[in-house]
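Troubleshooting log. The previous run stalled partway through. Resubmitting the same two chains, unchanged.
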Amino acid sequence: MPDIETAASQLAETLKKYKADYIEARLEQSQRSHITYRGKELESAGQSTAVGGNIRALVRGGWGFVSFNDLDDLPRRIELAVKQATLVGKEESRLAPVQPVVDTVTSKQDSPLAIPLAEKKKLLDEYNEIIWRTPRLRTSVIGYADSHKQTIFVNSPGSYIRQPRTDITLRLSAVAAGDGDIQQAGLSLGSRGDFSPMRRLHRQVEEMAKHAVALLSAPQVKGGEYTVVLDPVLAGVFVHEAFGHLSESDFVYEDDRLREIMVLGKKFGSGELNIIDSAALPGLRGSYKYDDEGVPATKTYLIQEGKLVGRLHSRETAAKMNEKPTGNARAMNYRYPPIVRMSNTYIEPGKASFDDIIAGIKEGVYAKNWFGGTTSMEMFTFSAGEAYMIRNGKIAEALRPVVLTGNVFTTLNNIDAIGNDLDMNQGGGCGKGGQFPLPVSNGSPHIRISRCLVGGG
Amino acid sequence: MENILALARKTAEAAEVFEVAAEETSVQFETNRLKHIESKQSTHLALRIIKEGRLGYATTTELDDVKSLISNAVETARFGMPAKFQLPALSSYPQIDIFDPAVEATPLEEMDKLGQELIELVISHTPEILCEAGVSKDTISVKLINSNGGQASYKKSIFSIGIYGSLIRGTDMLFVGEGRSSCNPISQPEEIANVVIQQLELAKNPASVPTGQLPVIFTPHGVASALVPSLVTAFNGKTVLQGASPIGQKLGKSVFDSKISLWDDPTIAFRPHSRPCDDEGIASRRTPLIEQGVVANFLYDLQTAALADTKSTGNGDRGGGLPAPAPSALIIATGQTTMDDMVKDIKEGLVIEQLMGAEQGNILGGDFSGNVLLGYKVESGKIVGRVKNTMVSGNVYQVLKEVTAVGSQAEWVGGFLNTPPLYCPRLSVASKG
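Second attempt completed without errors. Output:
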């Protein structure tokens, strides 16, 4: 079987020769390793390698896509993709114009795969020991994974882009039990390849384990509407779920009713509110130089001074909406076609200090740390790993984990204070169209939301 | 595969090679029309070894790079968990029909037509709806050999069809949808369209519920989104072994309402989750989990079973790497009450079809809390309309301890769960006025 470099240079020669409006190929070679602990013992360690690729063809507005592990006989794969696209295509192909790019992106980052398994294991042993030192702890789960991949993107107009991508994730959770009750607390981190943030978590791990135990005696919040303060981590998940997904144009571009709702200039929040997506920020998990259609990354204002000013595009959605491409077409790996995705999404910091934000709240909820989040476009939910009552402007008793919900058309308007302490959360993974988890980051300063619906007993 | 096994055997005392090859083809519709055709070829090879008593593991897609596959497995075996089990010897498997050559033979044009018909049926009911739909056919070949002489191989076909519609009026959005899958080709789109049309009918009028305790009927989809994630975790032998399952110490005890029975069944003919053996070569069988409210069994793979001093239930699954316990297909027994009779019994309450975010809470403890993405208000025995901006919270163990009625008709949800609707006397509801 040829290596990806040989296969890519052959493709570069031949892609132009087929009867299609556009053809691209993405080839990947990757290595991964993982270590998991369940309880006191290491449960599994593994290493894997993969080689694969795909061909995507566009004919009269219809797409054909073929993915494979076997790099032999690529002409047959191209023919199949073109045949499929021809069967689909009944319209006109429209892609926003982009200059062909020939580039080799390099990384100064040492691959985390070069760090011996023994060294990673020693660190995870330390964290597990900290967790198990906590009284009333029942069990723990730790999952570490790293990957390095080299991709080559080639398309029929002449782009030839080599890009490396490295990713690290670490998830820890502590489970406490007592009186037939089971509670858990978690910590989730990620990095764009730099292993050093994984080495400094001893204090956070200790707090996480103690929190799991504290939850056993914590009450459940009474369900209803509250003034809610979100920490930067959870507010990042909030901005991703509550607004980010709605700004992905593939939901909007062919839906006239949604286009009416999402018209540029529409007011979504107060004049203080600014929301940005930027893959061009360096060193974050959603960062890259070119997206998976070979489009350079950009910084895109989605909301500026409370108004909708932009959205995320692939080449096709940009062309059909007569807007500029933003470089947000991403695929999880070679098995999937690129679709419109977020990269690094955040709320810009405002002026308020944390004390200002909670000062006037008589009874409210302070929600920290993420458990998860999801959206249906209009409505969204997100859940907090930690929650506390706020009473008379002060943080009061700890609560069981809470799930918060809202409606995008009202909740953003209900953000009435924005903090000055922006922080990016690297621990998330985004799911869409069966592609999960795609590395993204999101962030925010502390924010306050009035009248937020909280589920409870 | 034999040469990999032979080479691995030179350095390790035991070895097992597992290979999955798949061909998938799907036609996808967006905004009511054909948009995309995909085909995916994949090959995946996994090597598990026991070296000096410890487990090593590596995978690759490069079938000719045997050397690095073996050296990767050997490196991880230095740290791997001590292997407490024996790889199974050659044994016989039940005959389970899961392959129909007609799936692979279905032409793309036929799949396109099926998707179009499905969309047209839904549009003829609600012309302004925008639909996404997909029709796919997969063929999967699984092979396994180990150094104890164990071997298994089977071929499976899967045909799936699904539709997802969105109806937007002002800033009000309604999402409806349904899907089906089988090892045989599916040719009748009417049944799926009718489910979607019924959802559209029931959701026509807006309705609101008060904050407080209300009776709730979970439809099969509702059961899947609110109650099943916690049960899957709780019956996993690994969770039990760790002491993190709330029912881990309750084997043989009555924990659930006596109307509830649940089992795992990978032996049903032509179901996508059926197979003759699990991913470690242990024969498939039906495993009771809840028998009339009593906890009957937990699910095990080889290693977890050995650690728990019991036997594998044939539930070793390689979804995430090394085999781990996982259900194949879960079945909840039907009861006596029709859906109509359940609704008639409610003065004021809710029917829940989709609960969004329910799996994001304390799943281990059984707590769930979610936004009612699709649900209906019941007033004086009748469904009167769709509720929104409403949260429902509860605990699976409390909910299933006292069930008012179990539905008499079951449905498949996502190919993985077969369940009737469940009617619960009261649940905490919070709504935005």
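Takeaways: The longest helix of chain B spans residues 108-125. The mean pLDDT of chain B is 96.
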